[in-house]
Write a structure and sequence with these properties.
about 375 residues, alpha/beta, three-stranded mixed β-sheet, about 35% helix
Length: about 375
């Protein structure tokens, strides 16, 4: 009857449920009730013998939501920087999941974390609230037992939701029976990340026009992007900043270089880039005129992040028409927005737990591993 009224939850049947042999351990961790590793849901056999069907359904839904909300491994949980913060993130994940369960099932099992003030909040928002209240926080034995099983998630690589689960999410979304707390997940799936070369091209081309008149530009020389045609154009000056504090890996550098080379091929002799390398301080500034100059760059840095030195340097170059900043967003921005457009290029893997910035537009790109933890 319940699944007929709320068909979305029937997709739980697509995840195998396993009862490990006594002492009911998964990767050396004892399972008190249920847990998941992202591929299967494990249930304690003794608990299974005494639990009611409705309680079992709620436990399975709880684990299922952890998978759908990317709580496993180094995806969203990497927001925590130490063991005590990981425990808070652990709690935030349960608060987020149980808020959805309470709304859908109108009840929770004994020992499940729930606070109505967290209803409608994201995992990251709940985590930040718990971080403020961390001192003096204590948990009951029942809650501690439930959280203990989350240790199975630790040290796992970020799991992606498999195709079957994605289809069930999209189907429920289109049919209008998706739980409210999952709408953001589906909307993220419907707005996939862009290749970094396409983002760079669109931004630079946009800054090169003076009189808007939307028509398709010359395909022989410029990429086929819908943009205003060029009426008159002087040499275009653009700032590009690279956060070298740990956000950059070889994959991203190669994609970044490819994107810049593509631009220079479109604007041969008409594009000048001020390339800035910065972590907590500005390491290098260089004017790039030709794509070949990118091959000679040696990337430096690796410390903390402060965005202000880049904007201080940009202020010395009034000819610059805009700034692209490749970063993980974990830095100190200026308090005042500049009078030129800014886009923050952020790795897609940080979509769930990037920091909000006071100005500019954040765009997520595909590829690159982002900050390592």
């Amino acid at each position: 009857m319940f699944l007929r009224e709320k068909p979305f939850w029937s997709s739980i049947l697509g995840i195998p449920v396993v009862v490990p042999p006594p002492p009911y351990e998964v990767e050396g961790i004892e399972i008190k009730r249920a847990c998941t590793d992202g591929r299967q849901i494990y249930v304690n056999g003794e608990y299974l013998d005494k639990v009611t069907p409705q309680e079992l359904m709620i436990d399975l839904a709880h684990e299922y939501l952890h998978v759908l909300l990317h709580h496993l491994g180094d995806s969203r949980m990497r927001i925590a920087q130490n063991e005590s913060q990981w425990q808070l993130a652990n709690m935030a994940a349960d608060y987020a999941v149980n808020s959805i369960i309470k709304e859908e099932f109108n009840r929770l099992n004994v020992g499940m974390l729930y606070d109505p003030r967290f209803d409608g909040m994201t995992f990251e928002q709940i985590y930040n609230e718990l971080l403020k209240e961390a001192q003096g926080m204590s948990l009951s034995e029942e809650v501690s037992k439930r959280l203990e099983s989350h240790k199975v998630w630790k040290h796992k690589k970020a799991e992606t939701v498999n195709q079957i689960l994605k289809q069930s999410l999209l189907r429920a979304y289109l049919q209008g029976n998706l739980p409210k707390g999952l709408y953001r997940e589906v909307e993220d799936m419907l707005r996939p990340p862009l290749p970094i070369s396409e983002i760079i091209s669109s931004f630079v081309l946009e800054q090169s026009y003076s009189q808007p008149d939307f028509k398709r530009i010359n395909k022989r020389r410029y990429p086929p992007i819908l943009m205003p045609p060029i009426r008159h154009r002087n040499k275009l000056h653009i700032g590009v900043a690279i956060d070298t504090s740990g956000s950059i890996d070889k994959e991203l550098l190669s994609e970044f270089k490819a994107g810049m080379k593509f631009l220079f091929s479109c604007f041969r002799g008409e594009l000048e880039v001020l390339l800035l390398q910065c972590d907590a301080r500005l390491y290098e500034k260089r004017i790039i005129h030709e794509p070949e100059e990118l091959e000679n760059i040696k990337w430096r840095g690796g410390g903390g992040t402060d965005f202000r030195p880049v904007f201080n340097e940009m202020a010395k170059h009034p000819e610059l028409r805009g700034l692209m900043y490749v970063t993980d967003t974990f830095g100190t921005p200026p308090t005042k927005a500049p009078d030129y457009p800014v886009i923050w290029l952020v790795p897609e893997k940080l979509r769930k737990h990037h920091r909000k910035l006071p100005f500019g537009r954040i765009i997520f790109y595909e590829g690159g591993k982002g900050r390592s933890v």
